[in-house]
């Protein structure tokens, strides 16, 4: 019997990509990965819960978004939208947005399971179908921000849809992680990459078409892109690895988490109207 041909390994590189290339790669990647992402992480994230990161920090405990009752809240890169369903239960008027139809299919399945239905919109966070000054809060846990080529443009787009005084809270991979291999074990403890190499990490097929993109920004870059868009940076939370937490999520693990941060959560605000 002949073995089926093994698909070729994607070629990895660090190079700049256009917004269009990034959008196409992300949409295809997250559509194809949606089932396995939810199978692997769905139980940890829950159907109705806002978990900020693999360290397990929960909005119910830290209240980074403050009191959302009666306010308009947008989640970008929502995936299965568990966070939006939880905020719906807190009395917020929520909308959840994602680029990927595959991820939004899981949001509908989770809505049916939980009985909590929130509006779901398929769109690119770089060009959102909302009027200016619409939302009181925009948030995301690892959605959209790491996967767009031009995160400066994303900051401006979030600023546009927020009302004056509104909050922008987003969790991303901690910038320091980019100096290490993407490995949860001992091999992930040794610095091998330059922290200052901002070229996106790209996986591409044999024709050179990107199939996955993830972009690195240094800590200073993140501060500058927020302030350049007009935001005031209020806080940066670097969640610590909790004692007894043994769950490995990709490159996040107890071995690494006990030594250095894996997540950075930026809390920013659009200035109030004068
Ligand atoms: C790592 S998943 C996080 C999903 C969810 N926030 C969670 O905590 O499970 C990244 C999500 O960002 C979405 N995404 C990537 N690029 C996007 C873009 N340009 N606009 C909107 N969503 C995007 C993906 O489709 C995916 O659902």
TrEMBL record:
Residues 1-24 are annotated as: Disordered. It comes from the Bacteria. GO terms for molecular function: methyltransferase activity. Keywords: Methyltransferase, Transferase. Residues 73-166 form the Methyltransferase domain. CDD domains: AdoMet_MTases. Residues 1-10 have a biased composition (Pro residues). This is Methyltransferase domain-containing protein. It comes from Micromonospora inyonensis. The lineage of its organism: Bacteria, Bacillati, Actinomycetota, Actinomycetes, Micromonosporales.
